[in-house]
Amino acid sequence: MVFRLLRRKLAADKSGAAAVEFAFVAIGLVLFTLAIIDIGFALFWFNRAEKATQLGVRVAAVSDPVSAFLPTFEQASAGGGGGPGGGGVAAGASCETSIGTIATYCIHNDIVCSVSGGTGTCAGEPGAFSNAAFSKIFNEMRVLYPQLSSESVQVEYRPSIAGFVGRPGNSSGTFNLVPQVTVRIVNLQYDYIALGSLLGLPPFTLPIISASMNGEDLDHTSNL
Fold first, then answer.
1. How far is CA 166 from CA 147, 169, 175, 176, in A?
2. Could you tell me which of 127, 142, 224 has the C-alpha nearest to residue 183?
């Protein structure tokens, strides 16, 4: 009888109900707060990476090309060059001007320079990879994004029709057009700061980040 009375009294006692309800709600609030913190940090580092690519492409556009192919490529041709309606110049071949004629453009493959396993290569056209030129770009980018890895950076040179008449040519006097320079950050991973250890979430890969500009001021000590 006494046990039944105590049980009924305990069941009717609601003095601790608020604490129990708060405990359930607090779990959700804590997780929600930690999620906001992680999203905020992810956006912060994504913005830093964007600024790093913008700085990197500015450096790349005024420095020596990472690809050794570019300084040997003369981007002008008699007969209209390799563009639509032109005479057609094989990719990688030198292009020459005829008297009083500047070609629309010559073609070469897009050149993408990157580092893998500590070794730098430039795909698209034959030519050595310049560690000094790449390091100059990469070191400037790391000022804004210290965690950046060299294997996450790509530097691309794409032929374009941009240029200006007064731009210096190469030693043979031909007219050099201007490539479009693009710097990318790829395979960039974000490690959760708040939720990672709590929920065991793995890092996630951020989207590719890139910035482009015309290389009108590429170093002129060489042909380009």
1. 41, 9, 9, 10
2. 142
pTM of this structure: 0.71
Q: pLDDT band for position 134 (50/70/90)?
A: very high
pLDDT digits (tens, 9 = 90+) for 32-63: 888 888 888 888 888 999 999 999 999 999 88
Angle (CA) 49 124 141, round 5°: 20
The candidate with the shortest Cα–Cα distance to 181, out of 196, 160, 151, is 160
Alpha-carbon span 87 to 82, nearest angstrom = 6
Amino acid (one-letter) located at 8: R
